[in-house]
Give the backbone structure.
Amino acid sequence: MNERQKFGASAVLLYISLFAAMFALYFVGDNGEPFSLALLYAMLTAGLHPVVSPLLYLFSGFSGFSIAVLPVYAGQAVLLGGVFFLCRKLRKKPTAPSLGVLSLCLVLFVAFSPFTPYDIPLRLPFGLGGISQKILLAVLIFLLSALFSVALKALLKKLLKCRLKADELVFCVLFFVLVGVGICRAASVTAYMGIAFFVLLTFACATKDASALVCAFALSLPPALVGNISPERFFLYGIAVVLFIKAGRLPAVLALLCVFFLYGYFDGVYSLPASALVRTLLSALIPSLLFLLIPAPLVRKMENKLVFYREKHLSRIAINRNRAAIGEQLFEISGVFREIQTTFAALGTNEAEEGAKEYIRGCVIESVCKSCPEYRTCMARGLEGELNKLIDVGCAKGKTSLIDIPSALADACVNQSGVLYAVNRRIGDYRKYMLETENAASGRQLLANQAQGVSEILRSIALEQSEPLAFSSEKERRLNVALLKAGIVCSELLIAGDEDNPALSLVTFGKADVRKIAAIASDVLQTRLIISERLTLSKDKFCCILHKRPYFDAAFGVASMTKTGESASGDTHSVIKIDERRFMIALSDGMGSGEYARRISESTISLLESFFRAKMPSSLVLSTINKLLTFSREETFACVDIAVVDLDSGEADIVKIGSPFGFILSGNTLKILESSSLPLGILESLHPDVSSCALQENDVLLFLSDGITSAFGSSADLYETLKNIPAANPQQLADTLLQQALALYGGIAKDDMTVLAVRLFKSPDET
């Protein structure tokens, strides 16, 4: 603290507390020994005011109402205060001079302070008179000055900011014990007990753990040294408070009073005179009442301060810094793929087409026109433009004829057949060249689409990773307490994310019930959680990761049959989990039956799975698969049904490409899903039927291959059949529908037949 610093409320409270400690230290000995000099030295070395601190020390000399000690106290205050004041003004370190002045102050004590020798019951070979005892006390005070300096610096600069070192903790305890001894001797052991009860209750309320037992042990030392009160009494007080403090302040106070009154019975307190009995009872009742009257916001502030002090902030900062660094790198990589996409998209085919036509015109002029005597006349009349028109028509039709020759060119040209022959000859080469150019352009467009998809995926991940995680220390503390009450011990616990979507990670021991953990966490966080991962760390130690439980869960049913006489089915289905909250179902019907149709269907489904797992946008997924199928030299067509379902909202994005009608079964109503688009792989441009439906609890989404729909003949017949089949069990629905379709075929599968059904239901709570 700088002497130029203004004295605020906290500074005034600090000086009052230190003056009270000086006052108590005066009574540690019987002769007014300057034990408070050690505290004065500690205050000055800690940077407290070099004028105020000595004045407080001087006033503490009035404690024993002994005028004889005041000159010694005044001389010590002037010497120590003066050297620190001068060093502060000269901006020099006062360490070396202050030690010399401290020694001089202790010489003043030895030489001039009145002293009555203590009766020491020890048989020594040499006498231990008054001067010898004063010299030993001076050495002790010198050592205490060094210890108190370490303790006070730790209390002022480190308390609730970082963990104290072991030596700092020991020195702080020694300081408080000596102050406690002074209180016991100055006031009484009864008064000290009242202060100790209040300190114990407040400390336990702030920490709510077994560290209160250590506090109880430290508080037990002064009355044990002065009043011969056994330390185990305070240990039992500590146990009573620790056991009940988590239930609230009132239960902890009642538990403490029960132990206090029980000890009073064995100590014979209730047989004391009324005045002594009242003092004894008030020593427990007054601090208990004061503790109960502490405002709740102040208690929460103390708890939060301690929780913040105990947290491992560096690991949390490291988590967010690493997330930010990863997000930034992913964003840069996303920009690279975006540039690739832009570059490929910019490489169009118009320049190649115009260049090819220019080449044809040049060849016709060189081979036909330049050998004609009318060449210069035609060029002068601007007939070169008419030749370009003929070439444009020929490139569009694939060949030219006499009727395609522009009238101006027909009137002037004397070698029309030669021109037509030359143009048609070059158009054949042109068409081959343009086909290769278009294939290259399609390949570039495919690569551009893929680069765009990768760029969007990386950008999405980058934005997600760049956002810092929010941590909740208060919820972590409450959850830890709740788990402990249930007998589950967690060595580490971390809650991240927002209130709507929290993520919980914890490390626990033994054979803890993961369902029980999820139930307790759900109750504390007021969010339905589910164990998403359970990682084994060692034989009896594991890590649980919990996420918000989706509102819905899903049950699936699949029934299929291969066309009679074929070894492989052209129908392929897929059910995959995209992430914790979404899944995809797909049904692909490769054109025809047998091995070739199976390969087409499996390739389509495999691509769908890979792209959707990578979270590529749906439009890019479908256009990419369509482009890949059109590259094939053979006819590779596939009818596809796709649905991506959100388990939180029930929202289903449904895509139908050339597939038969599907259904949504909701109670007693049926909704038909139709498709008017062509199958994948027929045209380069793709126009799928896309719809979005909000599925409710117990709704069933049904996809069918054309082998099923063809068996019923019409959608009306299938509609009537579905109304009579129970839909509660999707597997039973699929099996029943397949059997009825097979029966309509006369027991012979005339085509590959597949039924894919999914039913949503509310996810159950953990029990």
